[in-house]
Design a protein that fits this description.
alpha+beta, single chain, 2 domains, 41% helix, BirA Bifunctional Protein, domain 2, binds phenylalanine, 9 strands, two-stranded antiparallel ribbon, rod-shaped, seven-stranded mixed beta sheet
Amino acid sequence: MSTNFDQIEKDALEALAAAADSAALEKWRMACLGRSAPLMAALGTLGTLPKEERKAFGQRGNQVKQALERAFEEASDRIGHAELASALAAGAIDVTAPGRRRGRGRLHPATQTLRRIYAIFAEMGFQIYRSREVETDELNFGLLNMPPHHPARDMWDTFYTTAPNVILRTHTSPGQIHVMRERCPQPIRVILPGMCYRYEQITARSEIQFYQVEGLAVGRHITMADLKGTLTAFAHALFGPGVRTRFRSDHFPFTEPSAEMDVECFVCDGRGCPVCKQSGWLEILGCGMVHPEVLQNGGYDPREFSGFAFGMGPQRITMLMHKIEDIRYFFANDLRFLEQF
Ligand code: PHE
């Protein structure tokens, strides 16, 4: 017998022991149990042998074949388990690992100030009234006691549109007329926040668009004392209960008398610094008693009714509170700026 089954078996088992993964295993199966494997070639010679040798040859050959098949099964079980285990380990989920942090958004600094302003006035009974940003010349100026060619119009550089008499509002004050006409003859206590537009050079101190918060109270017994009390309470709520305020007389065509409110500089506590330009005071808003002409334009009889109004720039207030030096930061959307708040 020239076929050495022992050698074939020995070689095959050695090769199997060296197979480390399922690809190598499959290669081994083709080589050692496939159609052209030495074992199969040997078994194929069975018919050429003398009759008396065939039985023993066939038995031995089949033994080897079964032994190799068993060894293959074992090896593929072993390698299969190992591969599954390492795949599970690689893709494992650690249920005790802390979650990934989601980047949280935040409110724009101007929005934060706005919301504080809303909350403070809401507590004093002021509702929010939304008025339009595109106005007529008449509402922005005329009905606020500034007829055409009135010199005070120069205080507001205006964006005109191609439509006659249609402009972008230069302040929130035309909203006063809208509320009064809607609510007359009921008493009014509203704030009117919104965007305003001015045709100005853009600098660190002025943008062509900016926010204002207007306030308006109309009733039968409203006096200058109510104006001062309301605005002082507001300043205490926003800047701290100890902060001092002062009212300086000023002029607006739609209020009489008119004033500006200053608060004690909260950067230097009134001692004088660059932010307050050494004065110790910061100008916060314009205000006054609603002019009789304006009350009348809103439908209220000035002999029966009176009111006060005020207007402030929340961005300016935010700049003062956080010592922001350039108003252009508010619209630049620079995350390095926004992430500081
Ligand atoms: N509208 C004025 C401005 O833009 C502010 C103001 C509002 C003054 C209401 C008095 C009363 O400057």
